[in-house]
Amino acid sequence: MTLISFVVPAYRVQAFLSECLDSILGQPFDDVEVIGVDDHSPDGSGDILADYAARDHRVHAVRLDDNVGLGPARNVGLDRAGGEYVWFVDGDDWLAPDCLAEVAARLRRTRPDVLLVDHVRVRWDGRATRSALADVFPTPPGEETFRLAERPEALRLLHTAWNKLVRREFLVDLGLRFEPGWYEDVAFSYPLLLAAERIGVLDRVCLNYRQRRAGAITRTRGDRHFEVFVQWHRVFRWMDGRTPPVDGLRPAVFERMIWHYLTVLGNGERIAPELRSAFFDRITADHARWLPPGGYPAPPGVEGLKHRLVAAGRWRTFSALRAANQAREVAGRQVRRGRPVARRAARLGRDAVLREYYLAELRRPLDPHLAVYAAYWFRGYACNPAAIYEAARRLAPQVRGVWIVRRDRVESLPPGVEYVVAGTREYHRVLARATWLVNNVNFPDFVRKRPGSVHVQTHHGTPVKVMGLDQQRYPVGAVGMDFAKLLRRVDRWDYSVSANSFSTQMWERAYPAAYTTLEVGYPRNDRLVTATDTEVREVRARLGLAPGDRVVLYAPTHREHLPGYRPPFDPELLRDALGPTGVLLMRSHYFADRDRRPGLDPGAGPGPARVRDVSGHDRVEDLYLAADVLVTDYSSAMFDYAVLDRPIVVYAPDWEAYRLARGVYLDLLAEPPGAVTTSFPGLLDLFRSGAVDAEPATAARRRFRERFCALEDGHAAERVVRRVFLGEVG
């Protein structure tokens, strides 16, 4: 018999589910099974579970035809569990490394009905806070097991299912199931502890409890929080029907109930102001209904005062005291953060004048026909915004598109494109008045999100390296990052354009907010899909390439954590390896104006006829169409180029260092888009031997395309325009 069955329900957790599953399956202890329950999730959670089940015999995926909720989904998993113990782990949490061996040893030595394990709360900004276990048990119980009556303080531990391993036979004999509705853990955890004969405590952090910034029930306002009363009623009805009775523990359970109610009420992200009075009245009613005959141990101090006000039904007094306390906290923060108003008044100069002009323009109505576009920090007309702009001109001609560009990039704009220069008065005006703002990076911090305006974040590639908040785990790659400001920028997004399910998952992790994802493919790749043979020949001719040339495009990514780094690369040696018809095009990252170009000295002009620097070419799509082979390292170029179904070579000479220092989402050596090498001699050998075009490379590219390019049908920009500008859904 398997020792531990993990039941992992999944609903809208696609961004975190792989991390959860990997944390279980990657442990050195493997006497486990995972029952993953897709609770009719509208995202890719079900597909992730199915993929893991196909690759690992320990994973069993269940798809539900309807969304039943967390509690019933756990019941489905429980019914299929075959392990001696069951651990209910939510799909957005993850286990601590190497914890399972210690958990298993404790289970086998002590055979508890319930084993309580420690956890930490991990916020989206990376901050972690410990649980109450050390406070509840200042002296760890060790391997001692106990009944709740012997250690009633155990009730003060968090009443969740995921911090408990339960002996499955005990649970089945008890007949305890998860109830539907929110706060389902309440009606499960308390009866479980009350009934257990042998409770154990493992004072080792075994689980990371993710505090999501967006999408979590605990951060969702609404009247469904009133369901907490229903769950607590179930606890007391269970106690009333229990034989033998558990009256000795009733006061402690009652105190936990009032504490929990006040916790929910005190969380401003759960109970809306207009519902707070009604919620308080329900607490007062339950206080009278379930109060033990002999009373209960109310807490001291301010918490005890809250309990007394609840008992007396004194909502106005309770509310006034809460408001006064909040006012003191706000005043304290202002004193700590404050800076004299005079400092702002002292700021002079052109920038301050323009900023005041921007603020004045914000008071004017939005222009219902104005859309503002930008790409790569105003470097020019490019990428997804350019493709969306072109589609909007065709499908939504009533929308006037204006581009923001740097002064030195004005000449790169196509004829007829309306523009403003970054930093000018006109720039501030259009940013203040535009109804739509479309960018593949973020607009400056001063830009306000106006009611009625629509911000579209298109991104500029499928991510290989970690992005956004995930960079907190890799401080080398996050030097100079202000994550608080990043989140304020992300909060302006209304839409996030995604090229594939993988990108959607990573963006939700890296940029947690309330935006809507448009998983439609990448607009900039439409041209790669629709380009004809004639267009390809014309592009090659404009680049001076002969029909018989074998063209290789080398496009490495930027290493922002290693300024000045250049991968080992000899252009002439590679060109020689291509044979007499070979032509090598070399393109640096768009950060080249801030760094040295890989493989070329700063400012180098065109090289010999068969080795050319094409870093200054405005449209990278032209280079993709012209190239017969792409050589890259960790650049998103590989995902775009794969649309063309042509050979791709991953040349990753610093893979291990990059993976450890910068962090990656994808193991390119295990899941490459074609041939792979980590050395320059190896790169030469790939071309000399023909491995670039061999069947293993072709098969790898086919798998890569199936995973990342399935949405690229030439209509991505149209889908964005119809949703964003025309309001079409579906």
Automatic annotation (TrEMBL):
Membrane association type: Peripheral membrane protein
Alphabetized UniProt keyword annotations: Cell membrane, Membrane, Teichoic acid biosynthesis, Transferase
InterPro entries documented for this protein: Glycerophosphate_synth, Glyco_trans_2-like, Nucleotide-diphossugar_trans, TagF_C, TagF_N, Teichoic_Acid_Biosynth
One MF term in the entry's GO annotations: CDP-glycerol glycerophosphotransferase activity
Main location: membrane
Subcellular localization(s) per the UniProt record: Cell membrane
GO BP annotations listed: teichoic acid biosynthetic process
Highest taxon of source: Bacteria
Residue stretches making up the Glycosyltransferase 2-like domain: 5-135
Pfam families reported in the protein's UniProt record: Glycos_transf_2, Glyphos_transf
One Gene Ontology cellular component: plasma membrane
Entry similarity comment: Belongs to the CDP-glycerol glycerophosphotransferase family.
Protein name (Swiss-Prot/TrEMBL): CDP-glycerol:glycerophosphate glycerophosphotransferase
